[in-house]
Every structure is written in structure tokens, then in C-alpha cells.
């Protein structure tokens, strides 16, 4: 079988540390093109992965040998570049948040359908071992009725991660559209949908109170209610001091609680009213710290879905539903009202 030929558009940190190494590690993939508006970045990645370097993504899309692309660009470019790629006959893996509006997200979904191509959004939390095990436990009924939850994703901010530091597009409202809520909160929105089902109501407090150079939010707390009546909180922050990262979730049920990624040794802990405690040492959640870049499973899943013609776990439709929670949180902050989805 011939290898899947990949182009990566955008050579910033997410491409450098996630997409490119994970494609390179996949035996069924050949990286043939990389693109960045900064020529040096494209050329450095091209040399490392023996690919062609480009500064115009349209040139990558013209390459007939390219089967699929990763869109690793600032948020405001996700939709237009993904749509162009789909219209040129490429499968697309797009970074999150998938778009900056419902209309953009829907246009991406329609482009994928019209061209018969895969559109996957790079939400990695569904692939985390503790999250998959938690879903299995919840669906088994062992926890009983689910009452509530709290989920948090916080760290010191993207300036330590982005190639441009404090000058990164992450802090520019025109390019990012949204800050910690779009960078981190949308991951947790997607996770909670995966674990608990669809949400119906969203309320929020969203602030820019930690970074003077940021034009977008760096702290947010949301209150959510599912269609089935489960209530909980979602916190997204770029204001946690270095070393105090939090990527945890706690689910409270009739018979006990589940603690996900909340313990330094055990990635999932089950605690029941009976006194039973089950501790799971599963593969750890991916981090941006040194040594944390093994595989997010996102790339391998995308490749598998193309080669085996399967539906991705996070389709455009799924990405849109997770985005809509974040858009509702913005609306709630602006209107000071609970928003009904």
C-alpha cells in the first residue's frame, strides 16, 4: 500500500511538537510539504522531515500528490484554509477551536460533505486513557445517576509554548478571536460532551485580568447544564503559575465519584460510598512539558480514518457542537444571561 502523503500548513509549536513528529512516527505516512509565512520555519521543518518548503498554502493545495493536510494556523485562518483544502480534494485535520463562528464551522462541514473528504478537529482529550476508561465506567452504570462535575484546564499561558512568546497571535484578538476559552476551554467542553452527553444551558464569567499584553480572555469560569440535568463547572485559565498546571476532571455520581488526571500517581481513581477505591495507573495525559510528547493519538486516528475510510471520532459536526458551548459562554458574558443552546 502506498503511503498517505501529508502537507502541514503552519510550522509553529503545535506543528513542530505534535503534528510533524507524530506523522513522522506513523509508518503509513510520508510528509511531502510544509508551509509557513516565515520562510526559515518552513525551511527548517522541510529539512528535518525531507519535505518541500512553501510560504503560500495555496501552493501546497495545488500539489496533486498531497492526500491530506493539517491546518496548524491562527484561529481566524482555520475555516478559510480548511475550506480551501477540502475544495482542492484534500482531507483535513484542523486544530481547535475549529472556527470563530457557527457559520464558519457549518461552511467547513458542508465543504467536507460536498467534496467527499474527511474533516477532523484535533481535540485530543477523547483519546486520553483515563477519559476513555471513565466513559466506560459511566456507561456501565456503576456510578449510578450522575449529579455534577467540575473540569479544569489551566496553565501559565501560551507565551512559554508559542514560537513568538508574548508577541504570539494567541494574544491578538483579531487573529485569535478568543483566548483561554478557545485554547483550553473548548477541549474541556468537548471532553464533557464525550463523557456526559449534550449541554443545554451555559453561563459564564470571562475576564482578561492576568496578562497586560493580552487582548483576549485569560481566565474563565462557566456553569453548564446537560440536557439530562447534570450541572457542573468548567474553568479555563492562562493565569496559573508555572508548575501548577491543572488538567483535571471530577465527576460526582449517585454511588461515588471519579477523579480524572487529579492525582500525580493515578490517572483515574474510583471512590464509592461502599468504601471501595479503585486506582488506575494508565498512560498519562499529554502535556507540553519536556518528555510529554509521545503521541496524542490524534494523528494516528486521522490517518487510520482516511486509510480505512472510517468516520473520525471528532468530526466537523462534533467540533461545531463543542465550539457552540464556547460561543454561548461568550454570549453569556456579554449579555449577563444564561444562554440556551
UniProtKB/TrEMBL annotation:
Domain GFO/IDH/MocA-like oxidoreductase: 131-258
Gene source species: Caldifermentibacillus hisashii
Record-given protein name: Gfo/Idh/MocA family oxidoreductase
Domain Gfo/Idh/MocA-like oxidoreductase N-terminal, first and last residues per copy: 4-123
Domain of life: Bacteria
InterPro entries, A to Z: Gfo/Idh/MocA-like_OxRdtase_N, Gfo/Idh/MocA_Oxidoreductases, GFO_IDH_MocA-like_dom, Glc-Fru_OxRdtase_bac, NAD(P)-bd_dom_sf
Gene3D superfamilies: Dihydrodipicolinate Reductase, domain 2, NAD(P)-binding Rossmann-like Domain
Amino acid at each position: 500500500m502506498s503511503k498517505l502523503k501529508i502537507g502541514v500548513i503552519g510550522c509553529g509549536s503545535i506543528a513542530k511538537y505534535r503534528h510533524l513528529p507524530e506523522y513522522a512516527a506513523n509508518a503509513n505516512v510520508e510528509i511531502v510539504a510544509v508551509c509557513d509565512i516565515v520562510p526559515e520555519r518552513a525551511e527548517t521543518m522541510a529539512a528535518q522531515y525531507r519535505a518541500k518548503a512553501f510560504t503560500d498554502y495555496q501552493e501546497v493545495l495545488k500539489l496533486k500528490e498531497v492526500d491530506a493536510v493539517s491546518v496548524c494556523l491562527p484561529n481566524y485562518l482555520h475555516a478559510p484554509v480548511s475550506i480551501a483544502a477540502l475544495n482542492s480534494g484534500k482531507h483535513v485535520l484542523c486544530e481547535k477551536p475549529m472556527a470563530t463562528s457557527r457559520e464558519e464551522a457549518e461552511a467547513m462541514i458542508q465543504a467536507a460533505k460536498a467534496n467527499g473528504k474527511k474533516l477532523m478537529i484535533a481535540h485530543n482529550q477523547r483519546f486520553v486513557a483515563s477519559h476513555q476508561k471513565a466513559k466506560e465506567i459511566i456507561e456501565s452504570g456503576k456510578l449510578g445517576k450522575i449529579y455534577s462535575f467540575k473540569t479544569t484546564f489551566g496553565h501559565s499561558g501560551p507565551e512559554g509554548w508559542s514560537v513568538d512568546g508574548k508577541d504570539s497571535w494567541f494574544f491578538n484578538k483579531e487573529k485569535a478571536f478568543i483566548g483561554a476559552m478557545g485554547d483550553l476551554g473548548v477541549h474541556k467542553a468537548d471532553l464533557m460532551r464525550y463523557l456526559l452527553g449534550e449541554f443545554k444551558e451555559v453561563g459564564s464569567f470571562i475576564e482578561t485580568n492576568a496578562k497586560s499584553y493580552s487582548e483576549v480572555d485569560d481566565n474563565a469560569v462557566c456553569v453548564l447544564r446537560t440536557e439530562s440535568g447534570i450541572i457542573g463547572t468548567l474553568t479555563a485559565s492562562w493565569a496559573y503559575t508555572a508548575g501548577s498546571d491543572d488538567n483535571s476532571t471530577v465527576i460526582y455520581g449517585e454511588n461515588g465519584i471519579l477523579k480524572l488526571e487529579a492525582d500525580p500517581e493515578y490517572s483515574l481513581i474510583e471512590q464509592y460510598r461502599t468504601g471501595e477505591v479503585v486506582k488506575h495507573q494508565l498512560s498519562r495525559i499529554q502535556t507540553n512539558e519536556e518528555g510529554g510528547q509521545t503521541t496524542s493519538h490524534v494523528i494516528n486516528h486521522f490517518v487510520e480514518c482516511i486509510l480505512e475510510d472510517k468516520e473520525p471520532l471528532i468530526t466537523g459536526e462534533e467540533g461545531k457542537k463543542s465550539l457552540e458551548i464556547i460561543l454561548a459562554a461568550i454570549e453569556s458574558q456579554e449579555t449577563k444571561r444564561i444562554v440556551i443552546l
